[in-house]
Amino acid sequence: MAGHATPHFQNDAGVPVIEIGAREFMCVGASPPYDHPHIFCDMGEDDEIICSYCSTLYRFNPKLDAHTTVPAGCELAEHA
How far apart are CA 33 and CA 5, in angstroms? Predict the structure, then answer.
C-alpha cells in the first residue's frame, strides 16, 4: 500500500522509459538511500515528461491506474 497520495516512482532498473497511469507524480530516481531529490513532475496535457535529475522518460498510459507501471515494480511503495 502506498504511503502517500501523489504517486512516487523510482527507476532502480535503469530503464529508459517507464509507462505510468498518472500525469502528476514524484520521481525519486532510485530507491532510497540512492535517490535524488524528489522531483514533482506534471505532464499537463502532454503524454511524456523527462525527469530533470535522472533523465528517465515517463510516458502516460491511460490504461494503467495511477500507481501501476510498465515495467512493473517502478512505484515507490513507501517513502521516507
Answer: 21
- Residue 78 · residue 3 · CB < 8 Å: yes
Mean pLDDT by 10 residues, the chain (80 residues): 75 97 96 92 97 97 96 80
For 76, the grid coordinates are 515507490
Grid coordinates in use for 58? 515517463
The CATH superfamily holding the domain 1-7+17-37+46-80 is q5lls5 like domains (2.60.260.40)
Find cell 522531483 and name the residue.
39
Residue pair 44/60 in contact by the 8 Å Cβ criterion: no
